Amino acid sequence: MKKNRLSRHSYLILIFLWGGICLWQYYEHREVVEFARSELRNKAKDISEAVSVVIRSQRAGGSEPNQERLNRALQELVSSTDLESVMLLNSSGQVRAMLGTPLKVNMDKLAGKHEYWGNDFATFTNLVALGDSYQDDAGIDAAASPPPHAPRRNQLRNFRRIQQHILRDDGQEKIIALMDGKALDEERLNTFFSAFKPGVINEKEKQRLKRLLINKPLTIQTTSGVIQLLNMADQRKNERLHQMSRKKISELIKQRGIHSFIVTLPIASVKEASRKDINVRIIVILIALTACGALAAALRIAEKSFALQLRLVHAQDAAEYLKDQNMAAAGLVHETKNPLNIIRGLAQMIQRGTSDEDTAGTAVQIIEEVDRVTGRLNQFLDYSKPRQPSLSPVKLKDIVEDVFRLLEHDSSEKNAKMMFSGSELIAIADREMLRQLLFNLILNALGVVDGGGVIHVVLAQNPDHTLALDVRDTGPGVPPELREEIFRPYYTTSAQGTGLGLTVVKQIVIAHDWNIEVIDSDAGENIFRVTGIKQQGN
Q: What is the pLDDT of residues 19-77, one digit of tens each?
């Protein structure tokens, strides 16, 4: 019972282990999908920031971007990427520019998380800084810009004010030195980044800014846009921005020209990443299931092996016990035969030394009973002996004829005829055991035939070159339900039988790895057939 509980606990542990692996793969898959979504969010953010830089770059040329130029820039953006649509809203929520397919989501759904995930697309809202001179209420093309030759004192003043908390002490001088009209290369970009305090620009932001600024001249407007983008680059800053009070947002709009940029992107990349990852997860889960199944099978096999070993130990103990019992019984039989021989000898002396017929007859009865008991004891000794055959070539015909001679007196009393058929074949067997097998089978046949019966020993060769030995008789036969029972110890239907003769035959057959069966022939004969006898030369 305790072992069964341990087995059930082991199987439950395997089930929980597999379930844990499935749960682990589920959460890993969710992380992969979330990472793919995050990549799409970052892509939308990069596009928003790129639009902001484009507008600032146009303004750096000396004029505000009008509607036509902005639409053209958005058209280039849509055609060069896999965007479905872009939309620019002013601080009042009015559409200032839109290109691509119409917006597929209600604006109310974007008000909370500022993103919406559909079946085939995702829409994101990002805030972009377009500068304090970019007028929301006047429209994109209504804001006037100062003449190219006029000094931009307000811009310089704003630049000095913004840079105080993020630039190094010499950062302003470095940036002003780079505003020489030359395009920014790698070396000049590194000089530009070194103007900021440590931690202001991380590696990811550096790579993003490199893509935006490389091979372009550095201007005050570009620098102001970079500084404003740095203040808004992190998603957490955007979230904090959305959580600000309306008063704070209004102040920020007045200072920096905050606009909403809505980007709609297809989510095919997210679906593809999810599909590939889920295939891998399914393979891992199937491998885990196979491993757990193999462990369960191994556990089951180990349990069966343990049970078989336990049964083997018990069988060995029982065999040792039976061996001891057989030795004790054999010793008892041997010690019993000695006084029986003495009794038989005394009875013979009485028979020879008396003239009284009654006394002599009693002595004869004693001798006969002693002989009968001694015969049974001898059969028991034969039965209790361990069967270890000593194999050698044996001519079967000679063995059969020898047994016929020994039982000639018994066959005469029964008026039975004994005959042999078959070639002079040579078998590989223990000679004495084979002789005893034939003796017991023929003696058993003589016990069941009536007067004038026939006992026929037939030797034949099988197609596989083994030999078959039949002992046939014309007796009443053995009922099918008793054909296994007759080989058990002490089973007999004869008043004179001991029930050990056929048991000894069964032992000899098993010792030689032969087979024995009782069958009925078409001629009405009862047949004891021994098969599997190896032939010399095979």
A: 999 999 999 999 989 888 888 888 888 877 777 766 666 555 444 555 565 666 666 66
Query: Which element (helix H / strand E) includes 408?
Result: helix 408-414
Domain 272-383: which topology?
Answer: Helix Hairpins (1.10.287)
DSSP single-letter state for residue 167: B
Please tell me the CATH superfamily of domain 389-533, with its number.
Histidine kinase-like ATPase, C-terminal domain (3.30.565.10)
Q: Which residues lie below 8 Å from residue 215, measured CB to CB, with a gap of 6+?
A: 183, 184, 185
What is the Cα–Cα distance from 278 to 28, expressed in whole angstroms?
10
210, 189 contact by CB (below 8 A): yes
Among the listed residues 438, 427, 433, 422, the one whose alpha carbon sits nearest the alpha carbon of residue 393: 427
Contact 238, 232 (CB under 8 A): yes
**Tokens 């035939």 correspond to what residue?**
449
pLDDT tens figures, 236-290 = 444 444 444 444 444 444 444 556 778 888 888 889 999 999 999 999 999 999 9
Q: Cβ(99)–Cβ(85) under 8 Å?
A: yes
- Judge whether 257 and 134 are in contact, CB under 8 Å: yes
Q: Where are the domains of the chain?
A: 2-266, 272-383, 389-533
Which H helix or E strand runs over 89? strand 85-89
